[in-house]
Amino acid sequence: MLLQRFLIRLLTMAITLFGVAVVVFVVIRVAPGDPIAMMLPPGATDADIARLRALYGLDKTIVQQFFIWLSGVIRGDFGTSISLRQDVLGLVFNRLPATLELAITALLMAVAIGGTAAILGARERGTAVEAGIDIASGTALSIPDFLWGLVLILLFGVLIPVFDISGRVSPQLDLPFVTQFYLFESILRLRFDLTWDLLKHMLMPAVALALPLAAIIAQLLKQSLKEVLDLDYVVLARVKGFSETQVILREALKNAALPTLTLVGVQFTFLIGGTVIVERLFSYEGLGNMAIDAVINRDLPLIQGIVLVFALLFVLINLTVDMMYALLNPRLRHG
Amino acid sequence: MDEARIARRGLGPRLRLAGGWLLLALLAAIFAPLVAPQDPLAQDLMLERLPPFWMNGAEPGYWLGTDSLGRDLLSRLIFGGRVAFVVAFAAAIAACLVGSTLGLIAGYFGGWADRIISRIVDIWMAFPPVLFAILLVAVLGTGLSSVIIAIAVIDWTRFCRVIRAEAMGQTRMDYVENARIAGYGRIGIMLREVLPNVVPSIVALLSLEMGIAVIVEAILSFVNLSISTDDPTWGGIIAEGRLSIHQAWWVLVFPLITLILTVLSFSQFGEALKARFDPVLR
Questions:
Q1: CB contact under 8 A, B135 and A306
Q2: Which Pfam families match (chain A) (predicted)?
């Protein structure tokens, strides 16, 4: 049952990725403007342009180009970036860890903030505290990450300058890292001076990304908790003498968390989508920032590679959430 | 008289504030040449980075100060509103027409139509939306119509998903079955019976989508991919403000406040409209 579900999901995932590849390929091939002409100095002859065009395979029909590119992608060859003259896969893997670190930090913050607010709101249900949490989460949800980023830049970059507003790490620092996961590696190497510097750069973009998701978690988890708190087994725990906080943490939370978990999965993909503009806003050297540069430079192979990697990330997250849901939900497990 | 009173009581303070702000901003944008105190494009290096009116060094007539080229901030915000509202209305309506139509078809007919449309929605959801928007505008070339098309192409899925689910629910209701027994055709039932019942959701989503469109336009002009760079846009002003943030904070603060108020108003408006239309909540 589970295996069958997994295989069906894997198949739809492949169809989705193929669809994304087709859409992005067609969209950028329709683009007016010649990326090859932009690469060459103004004095280049037509013969030079034709030669370079053949080198990048742009002289073939669009269908031929697609299948040449696709067969490369399946072998792990995403082509060569036109603007940076480097292997696309290498460039993407160089930047992806920065984006993943940012997204995971933001996710953890969203779960921590939203979870705390939900538990507090459920414990203090019907009071001014709950009303305050409702207003705060409503506001956090209505304002998108781009605007939160700007608000944070003004508050903690300019008014009270405690955090850095641009870059990933202070440029004068000597980095001993072997991976691109600077934050995680600095913790493992116990170089907390570097961790602090990295966090000073990462906290504001992470909070900007986290706030809308934290609001959704707060609203949904609080609602589920309030529903569970009226059920018999919870009442029983209360009669046994557990305090309200203990009842929530020990009894109610694990049964109320399932709907929130599903939603967090979908919302996490939105959060990752948000890194594109938030990285730009904070000049954070991640995949999204590179993607915008690639679009501005009309770097077709690089754009294709980045979009496909984002899409792969999205479908993998959805698959993981779906499988976790199936494993955790007793009705599906035994169904 | 009585009806008027009921209607007025229905308007909560939040709806009145939200509607008030949107009306003010919209009127200012429509009559921009009449209400803007200065020419939004006029540069004057003698007047660069003037602070807002309550600070030392402010000049009369430049209420919110000037940017690093000496252009009047308030006038640029008012003229920027024109782009914002045109994009908000046009893009949201276009996304709504495409998404609601496909959602209605998928939800009401089910079967193969539903499977194909849902698969396309899945593919669309696997794109990072902001990157997709930037890519589309880069492909279509900058300009107002490109921005509108890009937003509609990306955001139709929001309408499609919600309307599909609602239409599916409505289709199972008795009244649809009754209409079928009464001899109405399938398309007739879809348009005459199912559509009116999903209109409240469409209207609420439409208001929400206008707020989203304003943000996406601001993001596009922030990365310099919206309309031509000469015309003022809220995102363009924000991009300038981000650069001169340590010298002139007001160039970032005022467009940011304008954007936040506009987005909050559109979402409040959408919620209130939904509550008003919803027979259960009413």
A1: no
A2: BPD_transp_1, BPD_transp_1_N
